[in-house]
Amino acid sequence: MVVDRSFVSEETWAKIEDLMGRYPDKRSALLQVLHVVQDEKGYLNYDAIKWIATLFRLPPAEVYSVASFYTMYNLKPVGKYLIQVCTNISCSITGADEIVRFIEKKLGIKVGETTPDGKFTLITVECLGSCGKAPAMMINKDYYEELTPEKVERILESLK
Amino acid sequence: MARITIDGIAVEVRDDATILEAARKAGIDIPYFCYHPYLKPAGLCRMCLVEVEGMPKLTPACVTQVRDGMVVRTDTPRVKKAREGIIEFQLLHHPLDCPYCDQAGECMLQDITYRYGRATSRFVDEKELFPTKFYGPFIVYEQSRCILCKRCVRFTHEYMAGTDWNVYFRAAHSLIGTYENKEIADYFTCNLVEICPVGAITSRLYRYKVRYWTLEWARGVCRECGLFCSLDYGIRENKAYRAKHNVNSPGPWICDKGYFGFECMNHPERIKFALERRENKLVNVGLEKVLNGITQALGRYKPEEVAFILPSGLSVEDAAGIRNFMDNFGIKKAEYRVGMEDYLPFGSNVDSLEEISEARNILVLSGDISNSYPVIALTICEAIGKGANVVLLTSWDYYLMKRVNNLFCIKPSCEDGAIYSLFSGKWDEFTGLSREEYERLEAFLQTKPMIVLGPRAQEAVRALIVDYAIKNGLKYIILDRSSSSYVAYTYGLFCKGIDSLLEEVKAGSVKALFVLGVDLFREVPNGKLVRDALGSVDFMVYMGLFFNGTARYADYFLPLTELVEEEAHFVNVFGKLTKSKKSLAREYEERSIREWLKLISEKMGKKLDLEVREFKPKFVLVEGNKKPKDIVLSGSGDFEALFEIPFYRNFRYMEGKSKLLEASPEPVLNVSIYDARSLGLSNGDYVSLDIGGPSFKYKIRVFDELVKGVLVADTGFEGFPVNEALNNRIAKVKIKK
Q: pLDDT value at position B716?
């Protein structure tokens, strides 16, 4: 089977090679390779899934099964900033719903949507593990805690 | 051995047995959904929770191994409450649509709920229901009824590794299905229906036709390949609606050909009257007139001017009847090898499918095993799942090529040469194998693998392999395209090959032909010769179920019986006998081959003895070391094309199996990834294939494993006479976009 290396950048390819060399069973690197490819492409579409499947010599259905199981893989395009607001119990008690409504109003989108300029995508998630400093949200890979609408406004302004 | 006590019953089992297996042995019912005797335990459904003395929590019986002195209880209030809880959860979102669900009556969820569940549910909210999904021509998936036992997914993983079938998303949103394609039709799709314990996966052929409990089951035999799987046919009001494999089958699984293939029995276009040619039409003139006509015509020919062409899937009784008929009238010529290959020698020293699945090393040669003997291909895949090393040397095998550990793919015209060079110990660069590949194969041969040889191989190659295997103490199975070889060879029903027989017909030295259930235009690769021969044949009797290209040339058409309409015995590739019972009443004039021959023989004043007192299969002896015949390729062009009938068209009485045909709606041309790139072709494009003269329109499928410069083209389509432009399976061709 031929793996087309030009599908990813050289930098990503180097990371993939490193990851796949770390385990006795290549397949163990699947989750991390999905992350690396997602970091470059933004989301995992059919082409990406198929390419990874060829790389691991797995059926694409198997790779998609893994990618769709975890919520941290995006199967649809997302904006430059992916805003994940926790709505689990601790955050809800401390006002997560208010935060979600505020962001919706501020960006003019609903939960699950992307702004027309492709900058922000808003989703709600289960526990981010930051209950002690609830409410919390995650923008791409950064945590923002003890949120208030004012704080969220400042954060969003800084990203625009 | 371990001794354990279940509900006070002492039972002794293997040390590695599970509690569930022990309970089955003790005769105690533990309910389960996800457990299956032929799948690895998964512990998913939690239905089999039992109480084990000394364990604080309930434990799943299907994954817990027994321990000597273990005391298990399945009848305590705790277990009862746990079972009720599991059932209640399973039914939370279940649509409870049993009144129109096809599984009703054979549904494990129904049975277990009835026995162990609560009569009411405490869930008052609205149920979450999902739309019905149709995955191709065979399978319907009702997500709402799915209990996520993953039996189907585990089956595809363990036996059909690499199939486009899996479970996606998670928890309440879990969805089972295909990903790459909208359809699943992967040779063994029917097993997904059979393995599903509830009504989530059901068969489209059976959908809304009949209730399960109104069916009566008749024991029959599938005649599609030389395994002759024993199947039960579900009959209601003299019509078949279902097929199911039974314990007499050689293996636990069957293929789509067997599962959906009974359709031809009920097909509306099936001919059930004896017909006579009047000018250019076959008409029903009454049985007596037909028999008179045939006997009068036969009287005109000398015995050496009469010949028989026999179908695959011939029963012992029919073969004996044909032999006696030929002896009665001194007829010498008969041929069962219609696929053009030599077929001799054949046979195996393997006794069962289990032996294949237990093999550690398997060398699979030539092709197309998955097409001609699907269940053997599945068993080879099972062996791969169990850790066997399988090496495949072939030019084309759609199913196995994607799944084996080591693939050596070569050009179709080099296949015989490469195998011959491997077993005669001399590397030959013209076979397309590099020195290094050859050495790897030779090293593998030293591990004493089991050899499976596919039907495309020539006589010289077969002889050499049998010779080699016997000398070196290897296990081997040699497969034929025709499944009749054991009986036909034992009764001497063969001459010099279909090619020379048709040449004789063409030259006029054979004037009368009996063609029994074979569509020569489809099965014989040399279509030109078939057309010439049938065009010049003086008198022809065609026996079959349907009108087809060959029947068009017939002077008389005699309707045959099929499957459970006659009693018959078959001998499979392992030399074992299977029996089909007569369970369907005949409606009109349909008869078996032997009964027709008896009528004709008696009309001509000779009694025909139909009783088979004993049957001893003869085996073919190896004759010397011949060189394989060179394959001369006709036509011109850059590509070498192999013409094969696709899986979903490669069966007896194709005309009457419309459900199976839906999986192969149009001719496909398989192109290697290299050629696809250089020609700028992708999946689904249409090209025309130029075979020196006429050209044919094909749909492209890019097949990664194929060798550069090789095409594999489908034949066997109605109104698509590729065969008639060819004189062999392999030819040189050109592609036009």
A: 86
Rg, Å, chain A Cα set: 18
Residue with tokens 């434990």: B59
Report d(CA B394, CA B333) in Å as an integer: 34
User: In terms of DSSP bridges, do strands B2-6 and B568-571 run parallel, antiparallel, or are they unpaired?
Assistant: unpaired
Nearest Cα to Cα of residue B695 among B706, B686, B704, B703:
B686
B32 with B45: CB under 8 angstroms?
yes
| Yes or no: domain A5-69 corresponds to CATH 2.60.40 | no
CATH level 2 (architecture), domain B634-736: Beta Barrel (2.40)
| Residue limits of CATH 3.40.228.10 in chain B | 347-479
The CATH class, in words, for B347-479 is alpha beta
Domain A81-159 class in CATH = alpha beta
The ipTM, to two decimals, is 0.86
What does residue B220 show for φ and ψ, rounded to 5 degrees? -135, -175
Task: Give the span between the Cα atoms of B84 and B62, in whole angstroms.
Answer: 18
* pLDDT at position B611: 82
Report the alpha-carbon distance of residue B444 to residue B707 in Å, rounded.
Answer: 22
Burial of B646 (0-12, 13-18, 19+ CB in 10 A): buried
CA distance A56 to A44: 16
The pair phi, psi for residue B133, each rounded to 5°, is: -120, 135
- Shortest CA distance from A65: residue in chain B: B168
* pLDDT, position B621: 62
* pLDDT at residue number B646: 93
Q: Where are the domains of chain A?
A: 5-69, 81-159
Q: Specify the pLDDT at position B481.
A: 85
CATH of domain B2-90: 3.10.20.740
Tally of CB atoms within 10 A around B223:
26
* CATH code 2.40.40.20 region(s) in chain B: 634-736
Q: Which residue has the higher pLDDT, B460 or B232?
A: B232
Q: Which CATH number fits domain B123-265: 3.90.226.10, 3.30.70.20, 3.30.70.2860, 3.90.550.10?
A: 3.30.70.20
CB-nearest to B673 from A2, A61, A69 is A2
Degrees, nearest 5: CA angle B582-B588-B592 = 45
Q: What three-state secondary structure class fits B730?
A: strand
E strands within B87-215?
Answer: 132-135, 139-142, 166-168, 175-177, 201-203
A44/chain B closest Cα distance in angstroms: 14
Show residues of chain A in contact with B165, CB under 8 Å.
61
Measure the CA–CA gap between B282 and B398, rounded to whole angstroms: 40
According to CATH, where is 3.10.20.740 located in chain B? 2-90
Query: Is-above-0.80 flag for pTM?
Result: yes
Q: Which residues of A fall within a CB distance of 8 Å from B180?
A: 50, 60-61
Say whether A13 sits in a helix, a strand or coil.
helix
Helix (H) or strand (E) holding B380: helix B374-385
Cα separation, B284 vs B305, in Å, equals: 27
In the predicted model, is pLDDT for residue B624 greater than 60?
A: no
Question: Which chain B positions have a beta carbon within 8 Å of A47's beta carbon?
Answer: none
* Residue ranges of chain A whose CB lies within 8 Å of a chain B CB: 1-2, 49-50, 59-62, 64-65, 68-69
Answer whether B164 sits within 8 Å of A59, measured CB to CB: yes
Measured between beta carbons, the chain A residues lying within 8 angstroms of B168 are 64-65, 68-69
Q: What is the largest CA-CA distance in chain B?
A: 89
Q: Cβ separation of A69 and B166 shorter than 8 Å?
A: no
Q: What share of chain A is helix, strand, coil (3-state, %, to 5)?
A: 50, 10, 35
Domain B275-341+495-556+590-603 belongs to what topology? Answer: Rossmann fold (3.40.50)
